[in-house]
Design goal:
The complex is a heterodimer of chains A (117) and B (399). Chain A is an all-alpha fold and 117 residues long. Chain A has one domain. Chain A contains five helices and no strands. Chain B is of the alpha+beta class. Helices cover 30% and strands 19% of the residues of chain B. In chain B, the strands form four sheets. In chain B, strands 11-13-12-15-16-14 form a six-stranded antiparallel sheet, sandwiched between helices. A four-stranded mixed sheet of chain B has the order 1-2-4-3. Chain B has a four-stranded antiparallel sheet with strand order 5-9-7-8. In chain B, a hairpin with a 4-residue loop joins strand 15 and strand 16. Classes of the chains: A mainly alpha (117), B alpha+beta (399). The structure holds flavin-adenine dinucleotide and iron/sulfur cluster (SF4) (2 copies). The site of one iron/sulfur cluster has 15 residues of chain A, from helix 1, helix 2 and helix 3.
């Protein structure tokens, strides 16, 4: 069970965080911006858009009210509503079965696809 | 509405009717909401012109949008296709000698100024939303902001504008013709590109933060600084910002609950010269509106009043216990209200009597239409006739 962020301030939609979001700065499309995600989450929308968020929380660092996008909780809800990407399904299944997101690894093998921003 | 045609014109990936897009583009930072039919993301002026042609043929309204940080519903659609201009991000070479640069409408002020700092230059119009606001949106609203007491509004920093009007025609505006686009909130067309003038970055910044017992003594200090910013230091520093917080606003960001003035100077003279402390003070100031919004006062207004009227405005806000702050050097004040507060009407009904105007910097948009006068309406209609006779851009905004 994921912890709920304590006293998460609601987003007031000022948009000040747009330019720190690594996904927004590439796509320049409001629905993947922290503000867009907050609006959609607030309305209980079940959408694969939530999987675009990297969960980096750069937006929270600059947010004047300290809004946390709480991507993990939002995704848990979205999964419960039946919306999940194939990549997420595979990743979760691999973690459950093999203890890592990439699936079976040979003894001593390092996952080649592991990258970090 | 033939969206397939639009998708052919712009590329299918640049037009959307997805429910997620329609929801998030139905409002701007004012949270005034309207119906978004679709969203389009042009990345060149030619695509904007094609969009206009399409809208004329379909008789559909287009709502230009920059960063959507506007506070009066200017970018809110009303059964419109929202045109998000934030992909117009090309930036020309910085002309250091001439102190100017050509930028696409979607270029963001914060990023531009970071780049210009390497050349010792900046675009000195700094709204509280400087981290996110687009150059196109700032021109369309004639943004003012934190340093307007020294540098004025966006109008003073524009050399040329490329505008796509409501007939799909391209205009290269300079001189007096700039007034047909600056501060017109998009009703005359899409600003796709602009040449902006730049200022040298001051070598030093210092600030003074003063708390007062009441607004009368605060206004006396304001007038003193505006008349002579030398602060008695024997030097001649120039005032670059003069920000006001009433006691409610000051308390909201953890300062003593007294009226405050935050003054900035472009050289020694202010009491605080530690850059880290100065950055902290400005960071707190930038977060002021969001913090007040979070505390239940999200409806922000922006009357501008000078002279004796300013004292009356501040006194009225004080008796009503309304949190307020603003760019006091220019007489722009931002009272913040709870949604549905009928004192907003009362405020704007009094502004003319105080010798002021209903919008100092945010614009009229949808929100302040009830308070615009007949002369303003006639002026906008005349501009519409010239630039957008079929009324396909920002229909129903301003008047
Ligand atoms: C926290 C906060 C602080 C703020 N502080 C200030 C401040 O100090 N001073 C100030 O002046 N404002 C301030 N604002 C208001 C807002 O940021 C400014 O009005 C800004 O200039 C809007 O820019 P934008 O790119 O977000 O435009 P948007 O909100 O997207 O659009 C604003 C208007 O311009 C039109 N428009 C946008 N782009 C174009 C274009 N390329 N061509 C034609 N029309 C266009 C839209 O249709 C709309 O009418 C603040 C807002 C917030 C949330
Ligand atoms: S997350 Fe914070 S910074 Fe971003 S739009 Fe919401 S309130 Fe503003
Ligand atoms: S946490 Fe998600 S929404 Fe926030 S900045 Fe990172 S990617 Fe963007």
């Amino acid at each position: 069970m994921l912890n709920e962020p304590i006293d998460n301030a609601p987003c007031i939609e000022c948009g000040l965080c747009r330019e720190v979001c690594p996904i927004f700065t590439i796509l320049r499309r409001e629905h993947v911006s922290p503000r867009g995600l907050a609006i959609l989450a607030d309305r209980g929308i079940a959408s694969a858009v939530f999987y675009q968020c990297t969960l980096c929380r750069a937006c929270r660092v600059v947010c004047p009210v300290g809004h946390d996008p709480a991507g993990e909780q939002v995704r848990a809800r979205v999964v419960a509503q039946g919306v999940e990407t194939e990549a997420n399904r595979t990743m979760i299944a691999n973690i459950r079965q093999y203890g890592n997101p990439f699936g079976p690894l040979k003894e001593g093998e390092i996952p080649k696809t592991l990258t970090c921003c | 509405m033939n969206l397939e045609r639009l998708q052919t014109l712009l590329g299918p990936e640049n037009v959307s009717t997805a429910v997620e897009d329609k929801i998030v583009y139905s409002r701007d930072a004012s949270r005034l909401e309207g119906e978004c039919l679709a969203v389009a993301w042009p990345s060149q002026a030619e695509q904007v012109a094609a969009l206009v042609e399409w809208a004329r043929a379909e008789d559909v309204d287009l709502a230009p949008r920059g960063a959507g940080t506007g506070l009066c519903g200017g970018a809110t659609p009303q059964r419109s296709v929202v045109v998000d201009l934030s992909r117009l991000t090309h930036t020309g070479p910085v002309e250091v000698e001439q102190r100017r640069v050509q930028v696409g409408a979607g270029v963001v002020l914060g990023g531009l100024n970071r780049r210009l700092a390497k050349e010792g230059l900046f675009l000195p119009v700094i709204p509280g939303s400087h981290r996110a606001a687009s150059i196109g949106g700032m021109i369309a609203t004639d943004a003012a902001g934190l340093r307007a007491v020294r540098y004025g509004t966006m109008r003073a920093w524009i050399e040329a504008i490329t505008l796509v009007d409501g007939m799909g025609r391209l205009h290269h505006l300079t001189g007096d013709a700039l007034d047909d686009a600056v501060g017109r909130e998009g009703v005359t067309g899409f600003i796709v590109e602009a040449t902006v003038r730049l200022a040298p970055l001051p070598a030093q910044r210092t600030v003074s933060l003063l708390a007062f017992d009441d607004e009368a003594s605060l206004l006396a200090q304001r007038d003193k600084w505006l008349a002579d910013p030398s602060t008695g230091s024997g030097q001649a520093p120039r005032l670059t910002a003069l920000e006001y917080l009433n006691r409610h606003a000051a308390a909201a960001i953890g300062w003593e609950a007294r009226p405050h003035l935050l003054a900035e100077f472009d050289s020694a003279g202010g009491e605080i010269n530690d850059p880290a402390r100065i950055a902290d003070l400005w960071c707190a100031r930038d977060g002021l509106y969001p913090v007040l919004a979070r505390s239940g006062h999200p409806v922000i207004e922006d009357p501008q009043v000078e002279g004796e009227g300013l004292a009356s405005l501040l006194a009225w806000l004080e008796t009503q216990e309304i949190p307020a702050f603003g760019h006091l050097g220019l007489g722009i004040v931002h009272p913040c209200f709870r949604p549905g507060d009928d004192r907003i009407t009362s405020l704007y009904d009094q502004v003319a009597g105080w010798g002021g105007r209903v919008s100092g910097e945010h614009g009229i948009g949808l929100k302040k239409k009830p308070w615009v006068g007949a002369a303003f309406r006639a002026e906008i209609r005349q501009l519409k006739e010239t630039y957008d006779p079929q009324n396909v851009i920002n229909r129903g905004k301003l008047c």
